[in-house]
Amino acid sequence: MKNSLAVGITGILGSGKTTVLKIFKKMGFKTISCDEIVHRLLNKKDIIKKFIKILGSEVIKNNRIDRKKTREIIFNNPKKKRKIEKILHPEVFKKIKKEILDTKKKGGIIFIEIPLLFETKSEKLFDKIMVVTASRSEIKKRLKNKYSEEEIKNIWKSQLPLTFKKKKAHYVINNSGSIKETKKRVKNILKKLLMEIQY
What we know:
Elements: E1 4-11, H1 17-26, E2 30-33, H2 34-41, H3 45-55, E3 60-61, E4 64-65, H4 67-74, H5 78-106, E5 108-113, E6 128-133, H6 136-143, H7 149-157, H8 162-168, E7 171-174, H9 179-196
Parallel strand pairs: 1-5, 1-6, 2-5, 6-7
Antiparallel strand pairs: 3-4
Helix pairs in contact: 1-9, 2-5, 3-5
């Protein structure tokens, strides 16, 4: 038996990956959000300079990288999108690998929210993969105040479909209902995960 587990949490935009990650965090488990890593990276001066070089100064707003403007540009320009990914992905994975290694040494379970888990072919990093799902109508309802219809379509286009991800997952959590229902599903999966490790 293992004494540690690295669990990757993925899905599509709006399916509720962050909600599930927060539930595990509140339970006292170690968690990592790739979005948070990226957010920190976007504040670094060297990263900002690289973004300006690739995307132009229009992506800067109040001395910060404007994520909305960045999305608009890269989703209409695959070449620039790849260049940006080449800057961010190695940094993100460096952090993930470090935290997984640390958990392997100490024991326990680490939960990592990684939107592009399958797209970046990083399945081998994780002992278990959890896919968070929700109905398209429910997801659109959640995202309508944050993203335009066009943005949602572009982001979904850049991600593999949920049907594909569900087939590859060890566990699937349906997050279409209430937070109470999701918590119950999370607890059921946690029981199975805990049975796989010995502290």
